[in-house]
Amino acid sequence: MRETARSIFLGALAESSIPRAFAKHVQYDGGALRIGDDLYDLSNFSNVLVLSFGKAAHAMAEALAATTGSGLTGVVVDPVDQVQLSGFRYFKGGHPAPNAESLLAARTMLRLLKMQSQHSLVIYLISGGGSSLVEMPLDEEVSLADLVSTYRALVHCGAPIAEINCIRKHLSAVKGGRMARAASGAAQVSIMVSDVPENALDSLASGPTMPDSTTVSDCYAIAHRYNLAAQFPAAIREAFEQQLLEETPKSDDPEFVTCRWWPILSNHTAQCACAERATLAGFAVDVDNSCDDWDYAKAADYLLRKVRKLRTGVSRACLISGGEVTVKVEGPAGSGGRNQQFALYCAEKIAGENITVISAGTDGIDGNSPAAGAVVDGTTLERAGAAALNPEQALRSFNAFPLFDRLGDAVVTGPTGNNVRDLRILLAW
Asked: Of 110, 176, 247, 407, which one is least surrounded by beta carbons within 10 A?
């Protein structure tokens, strides 16, 4: 069943590919580019600029170039080294925290955007991870070291991604609609591969091209809720303590009159692919996303109760849950991530049962480990004990990867060039 769970997850990755999404939603014929329901005659524009950033940046730029043929130019910001496309300048941005290339990429993009006119078309290719890959602080006194420290505090505080990105937006010169504002007057269209909740699309990459639905008041409330100001470096802490944050562009701002947004791939796509494969494997399937953004332990308890209930009356039950769980890291952390933390917690709860759980990220990266996630079953604790491993200690120290690596239960895909959030698949028989 561990192999069955892996097969369902890996099959979902294949079905949720960038080329498949572009083939369905982006077409090009006779000089006209159709994106969703919008049609752009490229001959009507004096300049077409493509800005691609996020964990799927290269894959999206490659798919667009394959659709339209040669001739497009722009910028690609990806977290891994890629074979560069002709006409594009590449930056290797930092993730999960910005690096010097992230800052350089942001400055380059803003400079290019400010050069655009009402006769220009800007095509944004946006995917998850873009928040750290392209970054520039509003306050010039904020250093790269300050940014890294701030990102670390945000990632470790246990807040949902929408709340984390609310704060990022209000500290940044490129987030929360400010990138679109820089090219005000130009036609702008965003093609989006989403790693955020379906109802929070302006959180994707911290919403650089969209009106911001959050406010500075939200930022102060979030910071208070998670005691963040005390963890921020002095330059950031002062902005919160003295309430100096600047408001982001909103939906009634004129900058967005010429802007359009088209999500072409999301976690829903991956969930449907999982459900189809599990059904073909003989499982009765249910999908439950209600624990999105819950604490990992609360989510695990909820999903395990549900899959046990589903198993009643059927020979095989499969429960699929998309989205992300949160982990509040307290003290030093080992090697792992939210998916492996979730899986290891489940292992303790299902010992001896005929239940298998896989939890993994579609980007192929889980926290600071080389794994996408892990798979566990009713034998995991027994096998860990036989290998002289201590699951309880690994869970307490946020150090799940070494244990899963030793057992051969880590799910290692390498960076996938995609990012549509996490998948949790629970099998019971």
From this structure: 247
Is the domain of 250 the same as that of 192?
yes
Of 247, 265, 283, the one marking the end of a domain is: 265
pLDDT in tens, 30-46: 999 999 999 999 999 99
CA dist 191 and 36 (Å) reads 9
Residue 231 CA to residue 236 CA, distance in Å, equals: 10
Domain of 46, CATH number, reads 3.40.50.10180
CA dist., res. 18 & res. 11, Å (int) = 14
Angle at 263 between CA 421 and CA 205, to 5 degrees: 55
* pLDDT at residue 379 tops 80: yes
Nearest to 284 by CA among 265, 309, 301, 263: 309
> Would you say 399 and 335 are in contact if contact means Cβ atoms under 8 Å apart?
yes
In this structure, the answer to whether residues 423 and 360 fall within a common structural domain is yes
Q: Where in the sequence is the domain holding 228, given as residue range(s)? A: 31-265
Residue 304 has phi, psi (to 5 degrees) of -65, -40
The per-residue pLDDT of the chain, averaged, comes to 96
Total structural domains within the chain: 2
**Three-state SS at 30:** coil
Where among 265, 300, 319 does a domain terminate?
A: 265
Please choose, from the candidates 125, 88, 116, 90, the residue with its C-alpha nearest in 3D space to the C-alpha of residue 104: 90
Q: Helix, strand, coil proportions of the chain in percent (round to 5)?
A: 40, 20, 40
C-beta neighbour count of 412 within 10 angstroms:
16
- Do residues 370 and 292 both lie within one domain? yes
Provide the CB-side half-sphere exposure for 395 (13 A, CA): 16
Measured on CA atoms in the order 188, 192, 198, 200, is the torsion positive or negative? negative
